[in-house]
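Agenda item 2: fe (ii) ion complex prediction
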Amino acid sequence: MQDAYAAALDRLTESSIAHDYDPLRRFSWPAALAPDDWTMPPELLSVYDTPLMDALDPRTLKALSLWESMNFYSMTLHGERRLIAEVSGHIHTPGFEAPSGFFHRFIGEENDHIWFFSEFCRRYGKIYPDSTVSVSGGGRRPELEAFLTFMRILIFEEIGDTFNVRMSGDARLPAIVRDLNAAHHDDESRHIAAGRQVAKRLHAQLDLSPDEEADAAAHLKQHITLTLQSLYNPQMYEDAGIPDFYAFRRELLRQPGRRRHHGAFLARSLAFIRSNGICKDGEALF
Ligand SMILES: [Fe+2]
Ligand SMILES: [Fe+2]
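Presented output:
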């Protein structure tokens, strides 16, 4: 008889198949984006809720909205290249029998996402180079390494999904932006549900020592910090015409208003970590 874990993953696989689509035919790509449109809503910009935003003229702010969206999709597609490699490393290996069917759907869908986000960037802006610094560590037992891999994937997908949800329903944005974010959210809601199942199962099998627990918390904290910092790519400030863009970035990262928004991006991940006893002090991760 199938256990609840395998049954939940099978339901997600069936749902993925039922929602299958052809990314090549799904979207209508306009010839250009209107320069006066928001491409990313002002409330999601890295300058929002700071005095630095108030000092920008409307034209610079609209330009920043375009380049911040290019950075967000570039981050997403570079992150997804890594997720495919990480999930491919576990599919059909011992201990991953139950999620392997879902992993096939995951790998296929992430390949589609990389395609449509890269297409958006190439048509209307550019793909920013991958600036991700990989989190330090190593020398852990494989079971702990696997748990941390799936936690990193989950946190990365949940941060991205908070942006997708808000952009898919924002009438100020062009239809193509809303459509891409809605399609991504639809797939990612299943990736997140499956990721939670896998992370909970791996954690339950671990029985962490206090040292391992401290190491896991430090590792996830570093992953969260690096992911949030990549929302502040200095190149997008330069492309928007902001002078002294490195100093501008440093100043933004010091703003108390930004910390509140980071908390909102992380709220679901921190609630999951807390309610499943994954780290004793979930708030300390951020
Ligand atoms: Fe994705
Ligand atoms: Fe995903």
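Discussion summary: The chain is about 65% helix and 0% strand.
Owner for follow-up: CH.
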